[in-house]
Amino acid sequence: MIAGKRCAPEMVAVVVAACLLTTNTLRAAALFVANGGDNTIEKSAPNGVGSLFSNSPLISSVRGLAFDVTGTLYAAMDGADQIVKFTPGGAASIFASSGLSAPRGLAFDGDGNLYAANPNTNSIVKFTPAGVGSVFATSGLSAPQGLAFNKAGNLYVANAGNNTVEKFTSAGVGSLLPARCLRHAIRLGIRQWRELLCGGHWLPLYN
């Protein structure tokens, strides 16, 4: 059983996205890394030994990774306007292709719905576990990229267009976070449910 998952995508050389999958022991974790140079996804074991996870032809400019609670990996394909899912064994299949435009950040809510950021259309799309998509939000967005949920189920969105963070309730009601990212509002992360990582520094979470 998967007890937790942490994703921290970063732009480093040709590494375009990375996601950490933790087990129920919380002591072992595998790091999954998307390589933009050769369109592959690598897996690094807890002992640091790396191996090829997938080189599926469906991989095309990965810009976001996220795990569901079963350990299935989902990847946002910027180059193909698709989200592809991978079994724990690396078998790939298309999860969604409608409503996507150069998708970037991915995040799951507590009900297993997957959210994807579309920077080209300034929108967030919500997908059910069956892959049925609908527009979740369009207001307050400026080239959205990074996504992260807090414990209360609120979605935080990094706006790369103006270096701000927008918060959305589960009903899709948005509000601007008082604190701004200083720069590079591309990736998001949450620490101990109290702080939000944006642009290389931590912002307080007000709720």
Q: What does this 3D model show about the protein?
A:
This protein folds into 2 domains: 1-97, Thrombin, subunit H (Beta Barrel), CATH 2.40.10.500; 101-207, TolB, C-terminal domain (Neuraminidase, 6 Propeller). The protein contains no helices and 20 strands. It has strands at residues 4-7, 15-22, 29-35, 40-44, 50-54, 62-67, 73-77, 82-86, 92-96, 106-108, 114-118, 123-127, 133-137, 144-149, 155-159, 164-168, 174-176, 188-191, 195-198, 201-204.
Q: How would you spell out the order of helices and strands?
A: EEEEEEEEEEEEEEEEEEEE
What ranges have pLDDT less than 50 throughout 5 or more consecutive residues?
1-16
Number of structural domains: 2
Amount of beta strand: over 45%
The CATH H-level superfamily of the largest domain is TolB, C-terminal domain
N-to-C CA distance: 29 Å
Neighbour order of strands in the largest sheet = 1-2-3-4-5
Overall CATH class of the largest domain: Mainly Beta
Category by helix and strand content: mainly beta
How many helices does DSSP assign? 0
Binned, the helix content reads under 10%
Largest sheet: 5 strands, antiparallel
CATH topology group of the largest domain? Neuraminidase
